[in-house]
Amino acid sequence: MSARPLIARTVPALRRAVDDLRKRKATIALVPTMGALHDGHVSLVRLARRRASRVVVSIFVNPTQFAPTEDFGAYPRTWKADIAKLAAEDVDIVWHPGVAAMYPEGFATRIVPEGPALAGLEDRFRPHFFGGVATVVGKLFTQCRPDVAIFGEKNFQQLRVVTQMARDLDLGVKVIGSRTVRERDGLAMSSRNVYLSPEERQTATVLYRAMKESAGRIRTGDAIAPAMAGGAAMIKSAGLALDYFELRHAETLAKVTSRKDGPLRILLAAKLGTTRLIDNIAV
Asked: In what order do the strands lie in the sheet with 264-272?
């Protein structure tokens, strides 16, 4: 049986544990999560293990990235199952602060990202989100002091925002993106998939199919506008409310008008019932 990871709940305890690893010349990889771990998270942990000698996983449901109308209180929390998964992957430290440890009384400093955080994608519908993400990730980086940090590509705009922040603020952390892990039918793994009814779960597979359809048409030379319109129509006809379905430059997230504009990525967000799903693929 794998050993249970050390669980730190205060910054001093975390610092002592990280300092102990550093004394042993360890390299450290951080995997930030909000818990409710699934196989996608496990793939991040395994990549972290390949990129460093020791792995820290944070579990913190960050209230500052949720709007008042969003699902902070209902967000799935599966602590015992999460720890069992992390123990099976030989994770060294689990950083599990409470809200008061992360945002103590009098907390008054926030990071306000620009650049990819203002691309007109998630930020158009969740204007609070990336400020909350940047602030908590900035704190995680300074608390854990990792050499590398692993983020999934499923939230591709978030990956770009965090990468830019680490570079701009000279945080000394190399941010590494890990490919999206999918169910056999193509649906991206997400902690929020548990909100879907069986019928909605089946309907949600249209998202991946639509992206593949549009990407295939663009690769074979179709004009961007009709190729993207076709994918959007597939999603809407399946009964989802589409927030965006866009082709962007894969590095800058700038809008594009030609296949020659650089590496391309399709990004989407859609609501199915009460559940909002995001996804993306490379073109």
From this structure: 241-249, 264-272, 275-282
Please give the model's pTM, rounded to 2 decimal places: 0.95
C-beta of residue 139 within 8 angstroms of C-beta of residue 102: yes
- 128 in catalytic set: no
CB of 35 closer than 8 Å to CB of 82: yes
Is the distance from CB of 178 to CB of 155 less than 8 angstroms?
A: no
Distance CA 248, CA 20 (A): 43
pLDDT tens figures, 83-141: 999 999 999 999 999 999 999 999 999 999 999 999 999 999 999 999 999 999 999 99
> Which residue among 41, 96, 128, 249 is the active-site one?
41
Burial 58-79, CB ≥16 within 10 A → b, else e: bbbbbebbbeeeeeeeebbebe
Residue 52 backbone phi and psi in degrees, to 5: -155, 165
DSSP state letter for 182 = B
Tell me the C-alpha distance between 123 and 157, whole Å. 9
On average, the pLDDT of the chain sits at 96
Total residues belonging to the chain: 283
Q: Are strands 93-95 and 148-152 parallel, antiparallel or unpaired?
A: unpaired
